[in-house]
Amino acid sequence: MKHICAVALVTCAFGCDVDADMLRKDIEKGLEERGAAIASVTCPDKKYAADEAFECDGVADDGTKFQVKATKGSDGRVSWDLVGRILSPTELPARIERNLQRKMDCGAATRIAVKGVVVECTDAKGKVTLTFVDDEGNMSVDET
Q1: Is residue 73 classed as helix, strand or coil in its secondary structure?
Q2: Is the pLDDT of residue 103 over 60?
Q3: Which pLDDT does position 67 carry in this prediction?
Q4: How many domains are there within the chain?
């Protein structure tokens, strides 16, 4: 889902500064509105040409590192999009239940699914370890 942040109020034909602090706050607010708990976001504070793309780095409260792709438009506004997928606390257990026929507890946190992140879920039978294999929320499941 693309988001637009008005970080500059003038047209920037030859490049203009992106207000990194304002963009950071907009990204944090946007992700938190979708349920993610964000510890920090950092964005480069420099001049960008119109339609130039850049990345911001973030860390969720659970330690998950993620990236946000951003582009500064010719009007000075920045659009951004999370590289990854936000999964609600009910979505992970529901996906496991469909595949394994087990009702799991994966905690109460909303997760940002990015490749390589590991989540442990439990039930009366034991533990299931999920590893996200891409940034779309697809995962491998290891029953232990």
Answers
A1: coil
A2: yes
A3: 97
A4: 2
Separation CA 40–CA 2 (nearest Å):
20
* Nearest CA among 94, 83, 84 for reference residue 53: 83
Has residue 12 got a pLDDT over 60?
no
Question: Are 55 and 105 contained in the same domain?
Answer: no
Answer yes or no: are the C-beta atoms of 38 and 60 closer than 8 Å. yes
pLDDT of residue 11: 40
Q: Which two tokens stand for residue 128?
A: 């299931």
Answer yes or no: are the C-beta atoms of 27 and 68 closer than 8 Å: yes
Distance CA 51, CA 42 (A): 20
What confidence tier does 5 reach under pLDDT thresholds 50, 70, 90?
Answer: low
Three-state DSSP state, 93: helix
